[in-house]
Amino acid sequence: MSIDTNVMTTETLRAMIERDEPLTILDVRPADERAEWSIPGSLHVDAYERLKAGDRHVLDTVDLPTSQPVVTVCAAGRTSQIAADLLRERGMNAISLAGGMKSWSLAWNTARVDVPGSAALVIQLRRTGKGCLSYMVGSGGEALVIDASLDPDVYMQLAAEHDWTITTVLDTHVHADHLSRSRLLAERAGATLYMPRQDRVHYPFQPLRDGDTLAVGEATLRVIATPGHTNESTTYQLDGQALFTGDTLFLAGVGRPDLEATADESRQRAATLHDSLQRLLQLPPGSIVLPGHVSEPIPFDGQPLSAPLSSVRERVSLLHETRDGFVSAILGRIPPTPPNHHLIVEANEAGLLPDGDVTDLEAGANRCAVS
């Protein structure tokens, strides 16, 4: 494949990876930046400082295939251009990823989730460069979307491919690490927008209470209040077989209780989270856990990120703690706060996307899990 320009967009790179086209991705960022998030399958050379210093020989000894394109990657797409220039001088078909890892945070792929016993088809949409997971649930020509974090056009196109009409859009809670696209998607699709009952957001929605049910085609979604990560955090149970847990329960951890909270509020929310998790653990052990995030890059392998509730229970040691032990343990393991979380929460409470490029606001790994 020949590349005629010196810059590649995230969407072009995403599509090439999805089609399994031959290419090499060379990450030139410092090792500590790569450790937090990277593109699946990429190679790494810690060349950032030497490239910035003008060292034109830093990549001379890097062994790269000459028969396929090389896409260079840095944080924002500037230093990677220097790397691409040097590689082109060696005769390679090298090109820089425009916007770097900030732009890559919007890249996505999908996986089908088989839910035995359910009347619905579930599609997991994964922001591979951010770890956000959203879901489309389709049945009988209708679809609902949970925790939309991608451009509404992605969901609209996917629904069209399955001959579904998006009738319902809902969030599990007010997010702090990414901008919710749920309100915009509902408006675009002419769908009903639902949120867990709360007084945080400043736009119209249909409130959901514990025990409520929603229908999509022949399938049913039951509302289970699971406060703790936030006061309004909610889990949705599909046909008694699958659990969309948002940021309450992950595959290898639980939600953090401290965002937008004082120390006393964090402690109270941690205790509440313990009770919510114990409530979930009373559900059938074969229930499929479908979380709102993962903490590592998501490959383009079509394999859903999910696990039976019984497996999650075994894996997550915090689930075996007493209430007091849980509170002490979780408060002692709180990770750094997500970048820009105050601004993101403010935007999500308003239900508005900021004007212009949002990649700076959303850049960085999500940090909503405690393990």
What does this structure look like?
The protein has helices at residues 10-18, 31-36, 48-52, 79-89, 100-104, 152-161, 182-189, 263-281, 309-315, 323-331, 341-350, 359-362, and strands at 7-8, 24-27, 43-44, 70-73, 94-97, 109-113, 121-127, 132-139, 142-146, 165-170, 192-196, 206-208, 213-216, 219-225, 234-238, 242-246, 254-255, 288-291, 307-308, 369-370. The strands form four sheets. Strands 6-7-8-9-10-11-12 form a seven-stranded mixed β-sheet, covered by helices on one side. The protein has a six-stranded mixed β-sheet with strand order 13-14-15-16-18-19. The chain has twelve helices and 20 strands. Helices cover 28% and strands 23% of the residues. α8 crosses α10. By secondary structure, it is an alpha/beta fold. The protein starts with 6 loop residues before the first strand and ends with a strand. The mean pLDDT is 95.
- Total DSSP E strands: 20
Helix content: 25-40%
Mean pLDDT figure: 95
Sheet with the most strands: spatial strand order: 6-7-8-9-10-11-12
Main sheet makeup: 7 strands, mixed
**Number of DSSP helices?**
12
Global morphology: globular
How many angstroms does the end-to-end distance come to? 43 Å
Oligomer: single chain
Q: Strand percentage, roughly?
A: 15-25%
Rg over C-alpha atoms, rounded to the nearest angstrom: 21 Å
Q: Enumerate the spans where pLDDT stays under 50 for 5 or more consecutive residues.
A: none
Q: What is the structural class?
A: alpha/beta
